[in-house]
Amino acid sequence: MHCPFCRHPDSRVIDSRTSDDGLSIRRRRQCPECGRRFSTTETASLTVIKRSGVVEPFSREKVMSGVRKACQGRPVTEADLAILAQRVEESVRSAGIAQFEANEIGLAILPHLRELDEVAYLRFASVYQAFESLSDFDSAIAELRAHPRTGSMPSIDEPASIQNPQE
């Protein structure tokens, strides 16, 4: 680690602490040349191997943009998408592997999206899993009905209640 002040190629670690989220380490360092102190933050990098073989860093923004279209017209906010992307990253990191196939990222998105919004889940799954017929949708809906989610939004079996403003 180069000193940011004098560019000396080495530094000594004085203190190390994990961040509150547990995903990074903050290190307090001191330069043996100039004696000045500085902090660094270290995180394990995640990389994604795309179908074409291209390797690129994992991006929460790409997860959000990939899911955004499926959530179009649904009661899903940007904050909800940001939380979903964070949860996807956490589940991927928990596997303890630094490099993933793009397909595995998509699989990690599905359970979190299902908890967020079942209609968006069906939209995303239909593209991601390449549904080819109505029977593919029927199977996915049957699976949703067989294993209802625990979220606060109505499940696919329950009609949304519409309140009459004059009652």
UniProtKB/TrEMBL annotation:
<keyword id="KW-0238">DNA-binding</keyword>
<dbReference type="InterPro" id="IPR055173">
    <property type="entry name" value="NrdR-like_N"/>
</dbReference>
<keyword id="KW-0547">Nucleotide-binding</keyword>
<dbReference type="Pfam" id="PF22811">
    <property type="entry name" value="Zn_ribbon_NrdR"/>
</dbReference>
<keyword id="KW-0805">Transcription regulation</keyword>
<keyword id="KW-0862">Zinc</keyword>
<comment type="function">
    <text>Negatively regulates transcription of bacterial ribonucleotide reductase nrd genes and operons by binding to NrdR-boxes.</text>
</comment>
<keyword id="KW-0479">Metal-binding</keyword>
<dbReference type="InterPro" id="IPR005144">
    <property type="entry name" value="ATP-cone_dom"/>
</dbReference>
<dbReference type="Pfam" id="PF03477">
    <property type="entry name" value="ATP-cone"/>
</dbReference>
<keyword id="KW-0678">Repressor</keyword>
<keyword id="KW-0067">ATP-binding</keyword>
<comment type="similarity">
    <text>Belongs to the NrdR family.</text>
</comment>
<feature type="domain" description="ATP-cone">
    <location>
        <begin position="46"/>
        <end position="136"/>
    </location>
</feature>
<keyword id="KW-0863">Zinc-finger</keyword>
<keyword id="KW-0804">Transcription</keyword>
<feature type="zinc finger region">
    <location>
        <begin position="3"/>
        <end position="34"/>
    </location>
</feature>
<dbReference type="InterPro" id="IPR003796">
    <property type="entry name" value="RNR_NrdR-like"/>
</dbReference>
<protein>
    <recommendedName>
        <fullName>Transcriptional repressor NrdR</fullName>
    </recommendedName>
</protein>
